[in-house]
């Protein structure tokens, strides 16, 4: 069975069961990229639905939308919020209409489902129209960026939780490694003694700090251009609409959503998305740097550092027996590479807005959703399958420390700079370690050296 719908370009045939309409059909054909659709991003669909619901509630409240029509629209939106009909959102996320196809996909699905609720056939727009009723007081230009802000804010919450979980995993290892003495390195050279716990405590702090940065940037997403209509003037909406709209939106979301201080600024600029994207990229880069450290620290003790042992999660070679690779740290590095590219896309798309709107928000949506998904899942896997199972090799760490020149700095307070400098030079000349030379000279025994080391890694009070 099929139905006919007509727009300004002519008549088209649609499947009778389709809730989308002719505008969506044309948009889906023009953006048939074969990539993810709006329906593949349920948070985005829910954000569109909650905006349309709040608009219907507001328009009913101020008396510009008849209660039966408004109630049917609200009921259709509730079904979308419950997860129904998402398969009807067929527009590719990278569509080229500047968001019009996205907005009309929502308008048509809601209108046709509302018509069915009222006992009418889909496409009977004389009774309830996608533009005149579902989209009343709105424009693509204020709906789509507002929905994207809400969807990104929602998606950022699990990301923040995942980063906090990863920070907790590092903190757990820091506590477990609190007494493991090792050499700290700068420029890949021995520097000063420290503990493995201090090293991992730094990692925990860095990841937790990044979670806080993302949370702060995400809070700015709750300031919306909604109510500005096409370019910020609010033309097409009725008196009292913005006040009622935001009151209903706040009640529906239980979030402090608010209207932007300047509607024209909010519609002209996409810097809030760029800021969130950059914080996500920075978080990924921070974790990738830590992952690189773990790869170095876990390199095999026969030819590398070998101060820690990563969980053996899979064989590392098809030809070298017994080889185990740091696959999870390398996964996090690759996620960071991908997010760097995504962030560059968001930056370029934000910069490319023209005059009163940015019509490249579909590209921003695509890359932001992908970045959030990758870093959220990656952080969870990294915490659970790698970090929480890391083991220390305290004997190896101490061996490297005692054989390193890092101990010379520790002994200056006991022996004086000149004497220590002379011992270092003599040890180098003889090809022995600084500690062994010092013990040989009867200046300290091994127990005294270890005691001095333990004191040296305690921060001053």
List its salient traits:
7% strand; 8 strands; 59% helix; 461 residues; mainly alpha; two-stranded antiparallel ribbon; two-stranded antiparallel sheet
Tell me what the structure shows.
The protein is mainly α and 461 residues long. It is built from 17 helices and 8 strands. It starts with a strand and ends in a 5-residue tail after the last helix.
Largest sheet: 2 strands, antiparallel
What order do the strands of the largest sheet run in, or round the barrel if closed? 1-2
Radius of gyration: 30 Å
Order of helix and strand elements from N to C terminus: EEHHHHHHEEHEHEHHEHHEHHHHH
Shape: elongated
Instruction: Give the % helix.
Output: 55-70%
Which structural category fits the helices and strands? mainly alpha
Runs with pLDDT <50, length 5+?
A: none
Overall mean confidence score, pLDDT? 94
Q: Tell me the span between the first and last alpha carbons.
A: 80 Å
Strand content range? 5-15%
Number of helices: 17
Total strand count, please?
8
Outline:
This protein has helices at 22-30, 42-61, 67-81, 100-117, 130-134, 140-176, 196-219, 241-253, 263-268, 271-297, 327-351, 361-385, 394-402, 407-415, 417-430, 434-440, 446-456; strands at residues 2-7, 10-15, 181-186, 189-195, 223-224, 258-259, 308-309, 391-392.
Which helices and strands, and how do they pair?
Blueprint: E1 2-7, E2 10-15, H1 22-30, H2 42-61, H3 67-81, H4 100-117, H5 130-134, H6 140-176, E3 181-186, E4 189-195, H7 196-219, E5 223-224, H8 241-253, E6 258-259, H9 263-268, H10 271-297, E7 308-309, H11 327-351, H12 361-385, E8 391-392, H13 394-402, H14 407-415, H15 417-430, H16 434-440, H17 446-456
């Amino acid at each position: 069975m099929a139905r006919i719908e007509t727009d300004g370009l002519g008549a088209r045939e649609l499947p009778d069961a389709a809730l989308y309409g002719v505008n969506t059909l044309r948009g889906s054909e023009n953006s048939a990229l074969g990539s993810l659709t709006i329906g593949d991003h349920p948070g985005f669909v829910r954000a569109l639905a909650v905006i349309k619901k709040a608009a219907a509630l507001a328009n009913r409240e101020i008396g510009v939308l008849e209660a039966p029509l408004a109630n049917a629209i609200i009921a259709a939106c509730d079904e979308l919020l419950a997860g129904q009909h998402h398969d009807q959102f067929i527009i590719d996320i990278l569509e080229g209409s500047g968001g019009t196809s996205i907005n009309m996909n929502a308008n048509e699905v809601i209108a046709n489902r509302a018509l069915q609720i009222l006992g009418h056939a889909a496409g009977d727009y004389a009774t309830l129209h996608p533009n005149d009723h579902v989209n009343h007081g709105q424009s693509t230009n204020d709906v789509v960026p507002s929905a994207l802000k809400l969807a990104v804010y929602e998606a950022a919450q699990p990301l923040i939780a995942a980063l906090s979980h990863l920070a907790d995993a590092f903190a757990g290892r820091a506590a477990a490694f609190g007494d493991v003495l090792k050499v700290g390195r700068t420029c890949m050279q021995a520097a000063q003694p420290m503990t493995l716990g201090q090293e991992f405590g730094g990692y925990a702090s860095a990841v937790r700090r990044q979670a806080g940065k993302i949370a702060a940037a995400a809070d700015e997403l709750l300031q919306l251009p909604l109510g500005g209509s096409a370019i910020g003037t609010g033309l097409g909406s009725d008196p009292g609409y913005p006040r009622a709209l935001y009151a209903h939106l706040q009640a529906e979301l239980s979030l402090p959503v608010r209207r932007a201080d300047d509607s024209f600024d909010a519609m002209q600029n996409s810097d809030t998305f760029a800021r969130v994207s950059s914080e996500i990229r920075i978080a990924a880069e921070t974790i990738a740097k830590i992952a690189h450290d773990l790869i170095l620290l876990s390199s095999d003790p026969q030819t590398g550092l070998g101060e820690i042992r990563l969980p053996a999660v899979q064989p590392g070679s098809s030809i070298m027996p017994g080889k185990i690779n740091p696959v999870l740290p390398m996964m996090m590095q690759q996620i960071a590479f991908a997010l760097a590219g995504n962030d560059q896309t968001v930056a370029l798309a934000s910069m490319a807005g023209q005059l009163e709107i940015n019509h490249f928000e579909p590209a921003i949506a695509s890359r932001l959703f992908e970045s959030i998904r990758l870093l959220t899942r990656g952080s969870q896997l990294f915490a659970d399958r790698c970090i929480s199972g890391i083991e220390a090799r305290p004997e190896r760490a101490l061996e490297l420390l005692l054989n390193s020149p890092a101990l010379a700095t520790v002994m200056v307070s006991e022996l004086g700079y000149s004497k220590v400098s002379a011992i270092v030079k003599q040890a180098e000349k003889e090809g022995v370690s600084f500690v062994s030379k010092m013990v040989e000279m009867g200046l300290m025994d091994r127990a005294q050296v270890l005691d001095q080391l333990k004191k040296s890694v305690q921060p001053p009070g």
